[in-house]
Fold this protein.
Amino acid sequence: MSEKPRRLRKAAKLLNINRAMALRKLQCQPNDRFDPLVFIEHIMPSLIANFEYCYDENDEVFKKSPSTLGYVDLTSNPVLVTRQSVMERAKKGSFHDRFVLCHEIAHVFRHSRSGKILAQHRLDSPERNRANRYFELEANLFGGILLVPPDSDIESITLKDAQKKFQVSDKVVKIAAADAVFWRINRKSK
Ligand SMILES: [Zn+2]
């Protein structure tokens, strides 16, 4: 994987979309609402050896970085960590916290081989780091597909209906609709 491009290249983007769609199908149908907590607690442990999910408001990383909501530690056994408040709000259907969980799920599946790099970037200044930006972009794309897949009816329903149906922000709906167009056009020409 190249760490240089600022935008995902076409092939990489299509690969990410296809992988996220395949994982999503392990939990629900294209037009169902994806539940990241069920996915984390029941599906990920069956796919990833020694995977663990921790929710802890008093985690050291959160103490040092008040704005951090979640992270993954992939240096040895894969661990996904979020604040307890994120887990609780996601359970109640908070759009943003559901997205946070999906973003972290994406890091586990896409970046486990780059675990040490990712950990290091988190300690450095993340927003300035080019490789880190690529990881974040990829995790956002992948996480977004988990929430709203391109093979759903996203292109034919209203923004409001889509938000309600998939429990996502308007921003995620707009990005998902664009991804659906991209997927439809490019899936045959890979
Ligand atoms: Zn991230």
